[in-house]
Amino acid sequence: MECVFGLVGNDFAVVAADTSAVHSILVHKSNEDKIMILDSHKLIAASGESGDRVQFTEYIQKNVALYQFRNGIPLTTAAAANFTRGELATALRKNPYFVNILLAGYDKETGPSLYYIDYIATLHKVDKGAFGYGSYFSLAMMDRHYHSGMTVEEAIDLVDKCIMEIRSRLVVAPPNFVIKIVDKDGAREYAWRESVKDATVASA
Amino acid sequence: MSRRYDSRTTIFSPEGRLYQVEYAMEAIGNAGSAIGLLSKDGVVLVGEKKVTSKLLQTSTSTEKMYKIDDHVACAVAGIMSDANILINTARVQAQRYTFAYQEPMPVEQLVQSLCDTKQGYTQFGGLRPFGVSFLFAGWDKNYGFQLYMSDPSGNYSGWKAAAIGANNQAAQSMLKQDYKDDITREEAVQLALKVLSKTMDSTSLTSEKLELAEVFLTPSGSVKYQVCSPESLSKLLLKFGVTQPATEAS
């Protein structure tokens, strides 16, 4: 089951997502990047129906880019989160998207922020959040160890604790995770945590 | 010769002009003037009221100044009924933005959006353009206090000081001479009233013939749009020496 979680540190936000693409009992690939860079200072970590996940996050990404082209200024994280929620809400009673999103961003004026947006268009601004079966474990770990104003080292340590918990306790635990971070210098990939690498095919 | 190209808005004349748009601007040139001034701590809008009669029922409604959203207001010059439609459109656009983004719409985006609507009436649909010019005054966190002027063609630009309506060219040149970049809101009010009094046709200037509105920040940091009451306006006119004092006792 897909695991996505994230938290806010002292001047950054970090999100982690599993990287397995699963179809029924088959694992298509175990290095699928589910955290999209929305713009220079925003990350969208998404889980759910794979077609919807890619379609919806790309739609949001392109609309955010269009806003910036049209108006010369980027959207704030809050505005992007509310826009995203609005799109989910509009589609909800006709043609819903089955995508859960953690939107992490950094704004110069307000610092780092994290938004929890679920598939039925719930929006919450949070310090820590998680989706999927993994959330049972990651939320519990974060509740125990999180405090506001964590440094990057402390936060990554907590992320690793959550990953270890998911790996050891979830029956169909995803083996690999990607961690991305956003701070004043922008949104970027931080690290991968792989316990299973896709085997390369030996040449004939 | 140009009469052949008058009737349809959606065609150019051979000289490359849109006559209907120009005629709309003519209509505004006969309307009551309005002046806007950008100061360090606010934007000032002053308007000349054309409809003054003792029989007029004055309520809280204004003739020249309108609030579009909590952080944007405008002054109008031209055909009032056209203005009402556009003001409503602008209000809806501002709320639609806030509905989507949960933030106030940046002032320039609001002006641009309304001007896109106006432009539509110069290119398709076969309808005449709106006979209104606007002065938009507002504040947002991107660019602070701003003043924009827009006309029936759908063109707009940002100004430090601008005038629309009757005698706007005279007012504009007066503003150009006397405006300084670092004026305060009080000085801006004074300058606006002075310029308006000089360019208005009427012989005496009383508070009944004017409207004054200001957009500024309260101490708590929120944007305030305030229309001056007739009593305070009379006092201001006296203070700045811009009016003949009332000859009869009230």
Automatic annotation (TrEMBL), chain A:
<dbReference type="InterPro" id="IPR023333">
    <property type="entry name" value="Proteasome_suB-type"/>
</dbReference>
<dbReference type="InterPro" id="IPR001353">
    <property type="entry name" value="Proteasome_sua/b"/>
</dbReference>
<dbReference type="InterPro" id="IPR029055">
    <property type="entry name" value="Ntn_hydrolases_N"/>
</dbReference>
<comment type="function">
    <text>Component of the proteasome, a multicatalytic proteinase complex which is characterized by its ability to cleave peptides with Arg, Phe, Tyr, Leu, and Glu adjacent to the leaving group at neutral or slightly basic pH. The proteasome has an ATP-dependent proteolytic activity.</text>
</comment>
<protein>
    <recommendedName>
        <fullName>Proteasome subunit beta</fullName>
    </recommendedName>
</protein>
<comment type="subunit">
    <text>Component of the 20S core complex of the 26S proteasome. The 26S proteasome is composed of a core protease (CP), known as the 20S proteasome, capped at one or both ends by the 19S regulatory particle (RP/PA700). The 20S proteasome core is composed of 28 subunits that are arranged in four stacked rings, resulting in a barrel-shaped structure. The two end rings are each formed by seven alpha subunits, and the two central rings are each formed by seven beta subunits. The catalytic chamber with the active sites is on the inside of the barrel.</text>
</comment>
<dbReference type="Pfam" id="PF00227">
    <property type="entry name" value="Proteasome"/>
</dbReference>
<dbReference type="InterPro" id="IPR035206">
    <property type="entry name" value="Proteasome_beta2"/>
</dbReference>
<dbReference type="InterPro" id="IPR016050">
    <property type="entry name" value="Proteasome_bsu_CS"/>
</dbReference>
<keyword id="KW-0647">Proteasome</keyword>
<comment type="subunit">
    <text>Component of the proteasome complex.</text>
</comment>
<keyword id="KW-0963">Cytoplasm</keyword>
<dbReference type="InterPro" id="IPR050115">
    <property type="entry name" value="Proteasome_alpha"/>
</dbReference>
<keyword id="KW-0539">Nucleus</keyword>
<comment type="similarity">
    <text>Belongs to the peptidase T1B family.</text>
</comment>
TrEMBL record, chain B:
<dbReference type="Pfam" id="PF10584">
    <property type="entry name" value="Proteasome_A_N"/>
</dbReference>
<protein>
    <recommendedName>
        <fullName>Proteasome subunit alpha type</fullName>
    </recommendedName>
</protein>
<comment type="similarity">
    <text>Belongs to the peptidase T1A family.</text>
</comment>
<keyword id="KW-0963">Cytoplasm</keyword>
<dbReference type="Pfam" id="PF00227">
    <property type="entry name" value="Proteasome"/>
</dbReference>
<comment type="subunit">
    <text>The 20S proteasome core is composed of 28 subunits that are arranged in four stacked rings, resulting in a barrel-shaped structure. The two end rings are each formed by seven alpha subunits, and the two central rings are each formed by seven beta subunits.</text>
</comment>
<feature type="domain" description="Proteasome alpha-type subunits">
    <location>
        <begin position="5"/>
        <end position="27"/>
    </location>
</feature>
<dbReference type="InterPro" id="IPR029055">
    <property type="entry name" value="Ntn_hydrolases_N"/>
</dbReference>
<dbReference type="InterPro" id="IPR023332">
    <property type="entry name" value="Proteasome_alpha-type"/>
</dbReference>
<comment type="function">
    <text>The proteasome is a multicatalytic proteinase complex which is characterized by its ability to cleave peptides with Arg, Phe, Tyr, Leu, and Glu adjacent to the leaving group at neutral or slightly basic pH.</text>
</comment>
<dbReference type="InterPro" id="IPR050115">
    <property type="entry name" value="Proteasome_alpha"/>
</dbReference>
<dbReference type="InterPro" id="IPR000426">
    <property type="entry name" value="Proteasome_asu_N"/>
</dbReference>
<keyword id="KW-0539">Nucleus</keyword>
<keyword id="KW-0647">Proteasome</keyword>
<dbReference type="InterPro" id="IPR001353">
    <property type="entry name" value="Proteasome_sua/b"/>
</dbReference>
